[in-house]
Amino acid sequence: MSRTLRVLVAGNTLYFGFECTDPEPARIAIHTMQRDASLEGDDNLSVVLGTSGDGRTGFYFQINAAGARADGLISDPEHVSLDWDGIWDARVHRGERFWSAEIEIPARTLSFRPGLGAWSLNLQRWVARERMALRWSSPRLDAFLFDLSRAGSLTGIGNLDQGRGLELTPYAAGRTREIFGASPRSWQGALGADATWRITPQVAAVFTANTDFAETEADSRQINITRFPLFFPEKRAFFMEGANQFDFGLNLGRTFSPFFTRRIGLLEGRQVPLEGGVKLSGRAGRWNLALLDVETRATSFAPRTNLFAGRASYDVDQHLRVGAILTHGDPTGRTRNTLAGFDAVWRTSAFRGNKNLLLSGWGAFAAGEAGPGQSHGWGYKVDYPNDLWDCASTFNEFGEALDPKLGFLPRPGVRRYGAKCDFTPRPSRDGPWNWSRQWFFEGDYSRVDNLRGGNESWQFALKPAGVEFRSGDKIEFEWTPQYEFLPVAFEITDGVRIRPGAYRFNRYALGGETSRHRSIRTASSTTFGTFYSGRLVQWQNAVSWTAPRGRFQTGLSVEQNFGRLREASFVQRLWQLQAAYAWNPNLTLASFLQYDSESGNLGANTRLRWTIKPGREFFVVWNRGWQRLLTSRDDLLLKPDSEMFAVKLRWTFRP
User: Fold this and answer.
1) Are 562 and 537 in contact (CB under 8 A)?
2) What is the pLDDT of residues 325-369, one digit of tens each?
3) How far apart (Å, rounded) are the C-alpha atoms in residues 101 and 19?
4) Which residues neighbour 347 within 8 Å (Cβ) at sequence distance 6 or greater?
5) Cβ atoms 53, 222 nearer than 8 A
6) 3 state DSSP class of 109
7) Cα(512)–Cα(498) distance, rounded to whole angstroms?
8) Residues 17/23/24/27 CA torsion (nearest 10 deg)
C-alpha cells in the first residue's frame, strides 16, 4: 500500500489532496456517511494542524472513503474532542485500485498567528482491516497523532488572510409540541442568530440571541446500579464548540469537572430557554483564554439567571502550563455559588528518550450558600501513557462543601486514591504467537475514604488475560473484587432498598467483540458474581450491520440486569435500536429508538440533516414518546405520551 499527498495554497484556502493505493479495493471498509460519526472502523484520512505555534493546541480534520467528515479541536496530546464543527469541505473518489480525497479548508475557518512561518502538521492514513496507521511524522507506537510536539512543519502559509473576521449565522425554526392528555398541541416559531467577531486573528467572540437546540440528538439512556449520578455528554452545538478550552487538570473527567455545560439550559430533565449569551476563546501570546456568559429565561420552575464561566492558562515553556478557572451562578437560581480553581500540567514526549510522561496538580474552593464542612479540594496525577507500559497514579480530595453548581462532582466529602498499570506487549510476526496482535495484562486499584479516614469503598480490577487478534477481533476476562460501605439505605430500583452496612463481593466479566472494520459487527459481555446481599448477572449484547459503501446502517444493543438480593429480586432492561440512511455525506436520515424498563418509556428520535453547503444546513426532527401503563407484570401496552416535530434552517454569512 502507498499514498501520494499534495498540499496547495490558493488564495485564502488550503487544499490537501491524497491518493491511496490498495491492492484489495473491495476490502476498503466503510460504515457511515454521517457527520462527526466514529470512523475508527473505516478506511480514513486525518489532518492535524497546529496554527498557533505553541505545540499544544490545534485543529483536527478527518474523512473516510465514503466522504463522511469529522472535525475537532486539540488540547490534549492523547485525545481529540469532536466538539467543534468548522466550515470546510471534502470529496472522495474510488478507482480500480485506489481511493482519493481532496480536503478544502478556508483560512477563515482557522485561528492562527499572522506571519507565523510554519504550522505544525501531521497526516495519517488508517487501513481498517489491517489495523494499520500510515503516518507522516513520528510513526511510532508511543507517539499520539494529536501530539503536536511530534508533528512536522508546513511552510508557505505566511500569506493566508482571515478576511474581516466577521461571521453571521441566523436561524429560523418552527415546531409543534403536544403532551397527550396533559396539554394540547402548541405551535411555535422562533428566530435567532449567532454572530462571530474575530477580535484578533487568534481570539474570537461569539454572540448568541434566542439560542435554539431543536436539532440536538437525543441522549443515550443508561442503567444506573450505583448510588451516584450518571454522566451524560454534551450534544448541543453551541456549548460543544470550544468546550475543550475549559479542560481542567489532567483527565479528571467524570470524577470532577469544575465547569460542565449541561448545567446550563437543562434542569432536572427540563429545558430552560436561553435569552442569549457570549463566548470568547483564543490565544494571545502565551495566554489561552475562554469565557462563557449566558442569561437564562424565567420559567415556572426557575427564575431568570445569569451564569458565568471563565478559564485562563499560561504556557510557561514548551512543557509547563499553569491555569485558573472561575464559575459563578446557580442554574436553579436559588442560591449563590462561586467556584475558583488552579491547575498545572507538565508534559514531555522525550522522557527516557522518546516516552510520554505527564504530571499535574490542581486545587479548587467554593463559596456561597453551601452546607457545612470543608469547601476546598486538591489532587495530583502522574501518568506514563505508552504502548508497552501504561501506568498512572492519582490522588484527589473533595470537601463536603465543595459544591460546583456549574460543574460535576458526583461524590463530595471523600479522598480518592488510584493506581493502575497495563502491560500490553505485541508479539513478533515471526514467533509462535504471531496469530495475536497485542496482549493486555491490566491492573487498576481504586479506593475511596471519607475525610475522617474511614474506608467507604475499594475496587481492584484485574485483567489477567485479554488479546486482540490479527483480524482486530478481541476477547478478554476480568476479575473485580470490591467493597462497599452503605451508611444509609440505598434504593437500587423502585421498591428494592439495600440495607445499610458493609458488603464485600466478587465480580467476573467475560467479553469479546469483532473487529470494527467488518460489515457485520457483534459485541458481547457477561458480568456475574456476588453483589451486595445477593447476586447480579449483567448481559450486554450488540449487533450492527452496514450495507456496502455505507449508505445504510443499523444496530441493536441490549443491556439486561438480573438481580437476586436478600431484600428482593429485580430485572432492568435497556433496548436501543439505531438506523441511518445516507443519500450522500451531505444528506442523511437517522433514527434512534430506545426503551428502558425503569421509566417504562419508549422514545424515538428521528433527524434529517441536509448540508446544503458547508455552513448552511437544514434540519427536520421528529420526537415521539410512548409510556408503558404497567397495569400488570405482563402488560406490554404502550400509550402515546408526547410528540415534537421541528424544522430548522441555519445559514452562515461571511462578509
Assistant:
1) yes
2) 999 999 998 889 999 999 999 999 999 989 999 999 999 999 988
3) 7
4) 77, 319, 356, 357, 358, 359
5) no
6) helix
7) 32
8) -40
Going by the DSSP 8-state scheme, the letter that residue 216 receives in this structure is: P
pLDDT for 634: 59
In a 3-state reduction of DSSP, which class is residue 99?
strand
Q: At 141, list the grid cell.
A: 507506537
| DSSP one-letter code for 130 | G
In what helix (H) or strand (E) does residue 530 lie, and over which residues does it extend? strand 520-531
> What does the pLDDT look like over 405-419, one tens digit per residue?
999 999 999 999 999
Q: Give the largest CA-CA distance in the chain.
A: 73
The DSSP element (H or E) to which 479 belongs, if any, is: strand 474-486
What is the Cα–Cα distance from 62 to 604, expressed in whole angstroms? 29
Cα–Cα separations (whole angstroms), residue 212 to 190, 275, 531: 8, 10, 44
Q: Whats the size of the chain, residue-wise?
A: 655
Cα→Cα distances 35→64, 83, 582, Å: 11, 12, 11
* Contact (Cβ atoms closer than 8 angstroms) between residue 436 and residue 468: yes
pLDDT per residue over 516-544, tens digit each? 999 999 999 999 999 999 999 999 999 99
Complete domains list, the chain, with CATH: 3-155 (2.60.40.1190)
Phi, psi of 238 (to 5 degrees): -60, -40
Q: Which three cell numbers stand for residue 172?
A: 429560523
Alpha-carbon span 60 to 48, nearest angstrom: 5
Q: Report residue 422 CA to chain centroid gap.
A: 23
Closest of 287, 46, 242, 247 to residue 151, by C-alpha: 46
Cα three-residue angle 208-210-215, rounded to 5 degrees: 90
**Average predicted confidence (pLDDT) for the chain:** 91
Gap between the Cα atoms of 413 and 410, Å rounded:
10
Q: Which residues pair with 445 in a beta bridge?
A: 419, 460
Closest C-alpha among 533, 481, 467 to residue 509: 481
The cell for 383 is 501518568
Distances (CA, A) of 281 to 83, 487, 498, 615: 14, 44, 47, 20
Contact 88, 104 (CB under 8 A): yes
Residue 148, helix vs strand vs coil? helix
Instruction: Please state, in angstroms and rounded to a whole number, the distance separating the CA atoms of residues 413 and 394.
Output: 17
Whole-angstrom distance, CA of residue 447 vs CA of residue 454: 11
This prediction has a pTM of 0.90
Contact 195, 167 (CB under 8 A): yes
Residue type, 541: N
3-state class of 240 per DSSP? helix
